[in-house]
């Protein structure tokens, strides 16, 4: 799962351009700062490589590992 801090994101699109699974896209909506933030297209596509998190110049993305519940 990808968590985005929209207050820190400046909409540079680095995360979208470098995502190897094309899990991210630029949203059509605006944030309060007037930018189009990235958004997760389909959570199943994301392989958790953390490339978006590592390349984000504003530290606005955090990749969280999925937690599986075994009953």
TrEMBL record:
Looking at the record, the residues that make up the 4Fe-4S ferredoxin-type domain are 1-29, 37-66
Which top-rank group of organisms is this from? Answer: Bacteria
Q: InterPro entries, alphabetically?
A: 4Fe4S_Fe-S-bd, 4Fe4S_Fe_S_CS
- Supply the alphabetized keyword list: Iron, Iron-sulfur, Metal-binding
Q: Does the keyword Iron apply?
A: yes
Question: Which GO MF terms does the UniProt record name?
Answer: iron-sulfur cluster binding; metal ion binding
Q: What is this protein called?
A: 4Fe-4S ferredoxin-type domain-containing protein
- Organism for this UniProt entry: Candidatus Chloroploca asiatica
């Amino acid at each position: 799962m990808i968590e985005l801090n929209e207050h820190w994101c400046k909409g540079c699109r680095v995360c979208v351009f470098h995502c190897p699974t094309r899990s991210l896209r630029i949203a059509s909506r605006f944030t309060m700062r007037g930018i189009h933030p990235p958004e997760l297209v389909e959570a199943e596509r994301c392989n958790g490589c953390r490339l978006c998190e590592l390349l984000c110049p504003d530290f606005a993305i955090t990749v969280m590992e999925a937690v599986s519940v075994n009953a």
